[in-house]
Amino acid sequence: MGDLSGAIQSDLAPLAQKLSTGGSPAAEDPRQTVPVSRSRTKRRTPPRVLYLSFFFPPSRASGVFRGRATANHLAKAGWDVTVLTAPREFFDRHLGGATDDSLESLIDPHIRVERLGLDPYQWETDVRQFGFLRGNFPSITNLFHQRKQRLIFPERYASWMPRVLAKAVTMHARRRFDLILATGNPFVSFAAAWTLGRLLRIPYVVDYRDAWTFNQFTEKIRVPEGGKAMRWEARVLRDAAEIVFVNDGMRRWHAERYPFAADRMTVVPNGWEPEILGRTEYPPPPADRPLRFGYMGTVTPYLPLRVLFDAWRTARSHPLLSGAELNIYGHLGFFPDEAAPLRQTIALEEANGVHYCGPFDKTDVARVYAATDALVLCVPGARYVTSGKVFEYMATGKPVVSVHQPDIAAAEVLAGYPLWFAGPRLDADTVARSLIAAASAARHMSPSVYEAALSHAENYTRDATLGPWEARLRRLLDESQVSHA
Fold first, then answer.
1. Do 34 and 203 form a contact (C-beta atoms < 8 A)?
2. In this structure, are strands 204-208 and 292-296 parallel, antiparallel, or unpaired?
3. Radius of gyration for the chain, computed over Cα atoms and rounded to the nearest angstrom
4. DSSP result, 168-224
5. What is the pLDDT of residue 333?
6. At a CB cut-off of 8 Å and minimum separation 6, what does 268 contact?
7. Is 446 exposed, middle or buried (0-12, 13-18, 19+ CB in 10 A)?
């Protein structure tokens, strides 16, 4: 194939042959939709899944929560789960300390976690760590590295794949996996799943937390048409047993782009964890205390902060919001260089009751929500954006104010939530009216409305969203065994 997976398949092929039923592999059809495992007449052990999740606790990347919840749910449902992820030091040192150590305590203890390294070349900024060639010939070294990456896999995480493949094949040799599950980004995990599916002849499933070849915020293709990334995506989707997306807009886009795989595309929404957030009675805000609005989540340059702050100043002149606070919780930006300008933008609004409260551990989420009377859902305006926070917001049973374009995917989740306040446009006047309506609801909410809000949120617990998917994965294995018995 002229890329890394082809070379590694050649190197690992002899071992893979030994792992096949009867000592020799079945004839390989490159168009095969679902690579199959050796058949069993009856399963006597828990189904064994290899989960490829580069971002996993203690990483605090946004996709970590779905990855952790997926692994935990499968373990709770009786699966034998092994996770291959990146090392802790990579998140600490090369991603600016983007970690939350409390998340590790939330991993099911039955899950085996293997942390595999990668070449930190693109993230290394300490010249003392440069080798002789990079230190003395940086331009030549950079050019060589860029060309090597283009030849291997069109993503900067490509060097993770050789270690993943070697570890997976070694573990499979000791005890077979029944299924490979890969989540992206990064999408090198998809390429690894495809390669392992061919080598080990077992089915694989891919889970799109984010889009691969288009930018879900700008809704534009971000890779060359017909280029290596596009070819890799088509290759992965052609052979996947199931292709999962976080919302239907993402599914529809990919179904139109890759119609040959449309019948295997499904939606598994994100959700919330009752064991973390809890279920408490709603305490009305004290009548003599100004209301507290809150935003929880990473603050990024993509957010419509200017609209939010303009609307906040207008709404705060209303008697219901007299002296009200807008407290912003979370990290500033995904990357260190984004923090300073965001901090400055927020600081300019302090006189208007806007406060930056910093990040909090996942284990403190219930306390933070309990101190808040109404919630602000401020997210980028794109049809393919849901936001994981919307599920936690609904689980509080408190008013939710939308600060985003009206047609984004999050609106589909909020439809039916009785304390959702949104307008037909994203502008300051519309958002100000929503803030005032939410303030009124916070002050005058009835127990019946609160219970109705919680009832809607129950549709999106992790068990509710992941349960049907887990059942499909079991059927996938059963059907594979029956058809190849």
1. yes
2. unpaired
3. 24
4. HHHHHHHS--SEEEEEESSTHHHHHHHHHHHHHT--EEEEESS-SSEETTTTEE-S-
5. 85
6. 207, 244, 245, 246, 465, 466, 468, 469
7. exposed
Q: What are phi and psi of 450, to 5 degrees?
A: -60, -45
Please state, in angstroms and rounded to a whole number, the distance separating the CA atoms of residues 365 and 23: 52
Closest CA to 258 of 217, 208, 193: 208
Q: Is 149 helix (H, G, I), strand (E, B) or coil?
A: helix
Alpha-carbon distances of 15 from 10, 40, 177, rounded to whole Å = 10, 21, 15
Q: CATH 3.40.50.2000 spans which residues of the chain?
A: 4-271+463-483, 274-460
Scored b (16 or more CB within 10 A) or e, 291-330 reads bbbbbbbbbbeebbbebbbbbbbbbbeeebbeebbbbbbb
Helix residue ranges per DSSP H, 226-364:
228-239, 248-257, 274-277, 305-315, 339-347
Average pLDDT, integer, range 276-280? 82
Give buried/exposed letters for 396-406 (b at 16+ CB in 10 A, else e): bbbbbbbbbbe
User: What pLDDT is recorded for position 150?
Assistant: 65
For the chain, percent of residues with pLDDT exceeding 90: 64
Helix or strand (DSSP H, E) at 429: helix 428-444
Rounded to two decimals, what is the model's pTM?
A: 0.84
**Distance from C-alpha of 211 to C-alpha of 252, rounded to nearest angstrom:** 12
For 325, the 3-state DSSP assignment is strand
- Name the phi and psi angles at 176, rounded to 5: -65, 140
Q: From CA 179, how far away is CA 477, in angstroms rounded?
A: 8
Give residue 376's Cα distance to chain centre.
Answer: 21
**CA–CA distances in Å: residue 19 to residues 25, 33, 43, 199, 392:** 8, 21, 18, 9, 44
pLDDT tens profile 304-341: 999 999 999 999 999 999 999 999 999 898 777 889 99
Residue type, 377: L
DSSP conformation class of 293? E
pLDDT at 361: 82
Q: What is the mean pLDDT of residues 409-429?
A: 95
* 47 closest CA partner among 16, 84, 83, 77: 77
Picking from 137-146, 172-181, 418-427, which range would have the lowest pLDDT averaged per residue? 137-146
The H or E element that residue 326 is part of is strand 325-329
Q: What is the DSSP string of 309-322?
A: HHHHHHHTTSGGGT
Which class in CATH covers the domain with range 274-460?
alpha beta
CATH number of the domain at 4-271+463-483, out of 3.30.428.10, 3.40.50.410, 3.40.50.2000, 3.40.710.10? 3.40.50.2000
